[in-house]
Amino acid sequence: MPPRIHLPTGWVTFVFTDIEGSTRLAQLLGSGYRPVLAEHRRLLRRTIAATEGAELLTEGDSFFLAFDDAGAALTACLTAQRALGEHDWPTPEAAPRVRMGLHTGWAEPRDGEYASPEVHRAARVAAAAHGGQILCSGATARRARPLPAGASLLDLGLHRLRGFDDRERLFQLVAPGLERQFPRPRTADAVAHNLPIQVTTFVGRQTERAELRRLVARHRLVTVLGAGGSGKTRLAVEFATDLVDEYPDGVWFVDIAAVTDPGLVAFAVAAVLGLRPEPGRPMVDTLVEYAAARRMLIVLDTCDAQPASCAEAVSRLLAGGGGVRVLATTREPLGLPGEVVWRIPPLSVDPAPDGTESDAVALLLDRTAAARGGRQPDPSESADIRRVVRRLDGLPLAIELAAARLRVLSVGQLAERLDDVLGTLDAGREDPLPAPADRGNTGNQRDTVDLAAAATGVNPSAPATRAAARSAVERHLTMQATVTWSYRTLGPRAARLLRWLAVFAGPVDLPTVEWLLDDDPLDPLSVLVDKSMVLAEPHAAGCTYRMLDPIRAYAARRLAEAGEEQAARDRHVAWSAHALERAHLGPDGQAVTLSLYALDPLAGELRAALRWCATGGSARIGLRLAGGLDQWWRERGLAREGRLWLFRLYGRLAETGEVIPEDELAAAYHMHSLHAGGDGEFGEELRYSQRAEAAARQAGDAGLLARVLAGRAAPLVDMGQFAEAERVCREVIDWAQDQGVESEALFAVFRLAELLWRRGALGEAAELLGAARPVEASRPVDRGRRSVDMLLGMVALARGDLVAAHEHLLVALRSRMNHGFHGRACDTLNAVAVRCAVGGQPLTGARLFGAAQATRAGLRSTPGIFEAYWTERQAALRRMLGDTAFDEAYGEGAELGLDEAVALALGVEHPDLAADSGRFASGAGRSAPPRPSAVNRHTEHA
């Protein structure tokens, strides 16, 4: 080491790097390895010199570095990885894959070196990394600020480093130019398994579990054999969970069903074990070498998906070392020497000797309770329950399907229909159906593409990975072939349902499926669920049904090929319109106060419907759907999205020439104007307001014209033309009264009240609002906002009447939150903040100001007419509290969610409960009650 090198002291960040698989790379390249190694060293040293890192040791392909700044160390590693990735190596195979690890600790150099356990910890962090990966400890992550531009740290959780008793939280540096997907870190975790977590209870099978334990203890390969629906996977996972403590090197679950290329079986197993390929060496050789000296259990699930490749991988693993055992599930034996084939039996249907229910009955009871929202079958149904499980021969699949039928049938009705078992339980009588009961929840098992990418270290953006990209395309095509095979096993009704379900964006319930088909969907839906082409997700109120995205895309393509897309998507649009209409109605079919919460779960489906309306359907219906989302878009901070949908629908109109009545066009333009105002596009706001007026006048609808004209003041206010806005409001209100449609000018009333408040005409504003209360209460789409109470609260604040302000504002806030008007709730939070500031609760006021601003920023709302007032009151509150106290309270409020902020506001004490309130004074000297303000008088009158 050069004598003048500076070794940092104090908080030092140590960096270790080496080439993953360097020995194999050297064997592969032969004499070509030395220039690759030299170029690798040159690139790293250039990075170190640029960031002033101290090179302590270089040995072979390894570097040991020290930095006095953690951020500089991470920057050096990032720059080095990018340089290595961008370098033009002789061949793609010659590119060295360098792993890097960082740890920060307190250390002082002695005699030109560090003798500290922190160095060893850094080395272990590097040993946990994979080629191309940068890992750092929690200590480094805390001190590496700021991070390099565009970079972030991905928390990989707690891991036990080899040689250390405690656990270390590891982070991966994520940045442009770096690979992101890697297997799990190479660490010595105390609990080594990846067994999937099950979402349903495991029922029975005590005898079978004991028998499997005996077999696995005596034989190295045990194959659980059975038909689809016999419960092989679930039993294997539950059994393996009991053995985790018996295998020090882990129990590992590998789902072969996700592997669509026979050559990827070894990669799938290796990825689960945290292995990556070595240059010039078959993956199976790397896998066998790793497993040879270890004691582990590997659960290979669904080997019949790739029987030959599974047999080869298992044979090599068992021959490579005596500590590996394999538990396989399949529909056909692997045919290997030493294989013990254990056929899974049906569930017992006879009661146990001690009188307890049989496993089959217990399973049906458990699943029936789940299907019925937690309600157990009635004791009077016991005889029919036993009759059902006997008729089904204790097959788990059949019992699971029977329980699903019990959502809509009694046990007696089901038993009566079991004369035609297949016709009752599934519609695929001629098809052998894969079994939902046979498949466990595979937890975080990755699909084939992810497995191969993680195992091979493919970076699709790197020049050296063209072959891997081609492989990914091939795997995609293979996946399509696999889905096609499953699709071809479907009967006509199930195939049609699969195609038609593709029009839905998310989960659907059974009534929706019935509505879609206009037929009983029980049989075809059962087939799709059984074949895992549709996922059934149980809820307390029943199941919902969901398609995975790849299957939905495949089904959508089939829908178009079948010439059914127009009909199916038009049907979905009609369903969306019906669902939107129902959201505005109560159980009795009468209009109820609009709650935006009712629209939240419909958003995905409505977007899908709008997409079709804008591309292949009716733009007129699309504009109606958009109108149903009018307030939702703005209150959820999505005014821009609303504008974009409207523009697309206008384009569709121009394309098709579809005729739209002037009144519907006027309503769309009016909505567009409001969206533009909410998005800060004030010129567009005025332009579409004018278009709406022209269309409304053409339509000759006085009520529509009043609504449109009532919105004309909004762009004027947004552009600061307050006097003109007030004139327009008064004209609209007078004209609407003359036409007998004064309720349609309610928006103009509210806008005029705001303008009167702004210029201090509080009495007129209060009178106007008092008269508007019954009008607001009569309009379901408006009354949830409680704009009258909000504005009366603002008038009361301006008058200094805290009692009236408190009561009006809390009524408005509670209603707005109860009905999902989040944007308007922010205005009310600001008003309550002012009430607190002037009412002796300044810290609460500052917190509410912070919460309102944070929420409004998240909603991307534009400043309204009260913005200057909020700013003025915040400035006054800051002067009252001082910068430090105000900023601290404001920051606390900004950390609150909207629900938390509303709860804080609703918990503000009523002014009458304050200690100095005169309302509860005792004795003869009590002062006379205060004369009600104009606000209170009009409230009482209203």
Tell me what the structure shows:
The longest helix is centred in the middle third of the chain and has 23 residues. Helix 18 crosses helix 21, helix 35 runs parallel beside helix 37 and helix 36 packs antiparallel against helix 41. Helices cover 54% and strands 10% of the residues. It has 42 helices and 15 strands. A seven-stranded mixed sheet has the order 2-3-1-4-5-7-6. A hairpin with a 2-residue loop joins strand 14 and strand 15. The C terminus is likely disordered. The chain folds into four domains: 165 residues, Nucleotide cyclase, GGDEF domain (Alpha-Beta Plaits), CATH 3.30.70; 267 residues, Rossmann fold, CATH 3.40.50.300; 85 residues, Arc Repressor Mutant, subunit A (Orthogonal Bundle), CATH 1.10.10; 170 residues, no CATH class.
